[in-house]
Amino acid sequence: MDFNGRDIISIRDFSKEEIEFILEKALLVKKKKYENALEGKVLASLFFEPSTRTRLSFESAMLSLGGRVFGFADQLTSSISKGETLNDTIKIVMGYSDVIVMRHPLEGSARAASECSTVPVINAGDGANQHPTQTLLDMFTIKEKFGKFDGLKIGMVGDLKYGRTVHSLSMALTNYDVKQYFISPKLLKMPEYLKDYLKEKNINFSECEKLEDYAGELDILYVTRIQKERFGDLEEYQKVAGCYKISPDTLKIFKKDIKIMHPLPRVDEINYELDATPNALYFEQAHNGIPVRQALLGLVTGAIK
Fold it and tell me: Count of alpha carbons within 13 Å of 161, Cβ hemisphere only?
């Protein structure tokens, strides 16, 4: 498969075969099969919204394969603060780089950037819409741990309305025989458009508000933070803040070997005592961002085939 020059904007743009191909390449990267593959390549890292794991893992991925990185982590340090349009920013930056990775608060911004860029654009999160590279590292982690997707029962809990990570993951899992469980307050239910998409794909999913309703069935619990920054009304946020908290005591209602995932950062939804349990998968999940993003950077620049 040829990914050279291809944008990574939405997980919906990729077939099951293409997803599997990326995961296979990421595994080879993790086994050190492509050392210095990105030598001579330059990554433009444009983060108009705060990020720790995604930005740093992209930069680490590029540097550790011999590439170079420049960019900004705050739009106030860019010409956007002077009134420059996103379109003009991209047209300038594409002349300085071989690939652009961008996070932006507006939904659809990554697609807009890709339409005016002559170098590949990788979406590192556009508002509450999509986060495809997070989804690919989530899937890499699941496959590495379980060796499969088919037959798994995966629960997603917390902010399912604004959570771009669960939106992308839910869509990607439609390629497999996975039962999805959506656990959230009424205010933060999975968007209707996404549930309609699952119905069109004949995907089996269930919704509830209480963790215990499906606890005994789950193989994986994917926990998300209630995102205060996505709420326009503080009172609405306060109604749902802290509504789900996973602790070692909570684990008693789940299957003994359940795995807990989280895209991070966390606030109070996962107790720190859970970190030392064999159920915690979230730090391993975060670290898997390196080989997955190395594979993607290599593929879209033509350095990995």
Answer: 14
Nearest alpha-carbon partner for 7 in 114, 135, 132: 114
Same domain flag for 124 and 148: no
One domain for residues 92 and 120: yes
Q: In the chain, how many domains are there?
A: 2
Question: What is the radius of gyration, based on Cα positions, of the chain?
Answer: 19
* Edge-to-edge order in the sheet of strand 153-157: 205-208, 179-183, 153-157, 220-223, 259-261
Element (H, E) at 179: strand 179-183
275 and 139 assigned to the same domain: yes
124 and 151 housed in the same domain: no
- Please give the Cα distance from 86 to 109 (Å, whole number): 8
Same domain? 124 vs 36: yes
Domain shared by 261 and 199, yes or no: yes
The DSSP result for 75-117, as a single string, is GGGSGGGGT--HHHHHHHHTTT-SEEEEEESSTTHHHHHHHH-
Which residue(s) pair with 153 in the sheet?
Answer: 179
* Tens digit of pLDDT at every position of the chain (305 positions): 899 999 999 999 999 999 999 999 999 999 999 999 999 999 999 999 888 889 999 999 999 999 999 999 876 655 565 577 999 999 999 999 999 999 998 989 999 999 999 999 999 988 767 889 999 999 999 999 999 999 999 999 999 998 889 999 999 999 999 999 999 988 889 999 999 999 999 998 999 999 999 999 999 999 998 766 666 665 665 666 667 899 999 999 999 999 999 999 888 899 999 999 999 999 999 999 999 999 999 999 999 99
Whether 15 maps to a domain, the answer reads yes
pTM of the full structure? 0.91
Query: What CA–CA distance (Å, rounded) separates 230 from 228?
Result: 5
Q: Please give the residue range of the domain that contains residue 86.
A: 11-130+289-301
Identify whether residues 103 and 201 lie together within a single domain: no
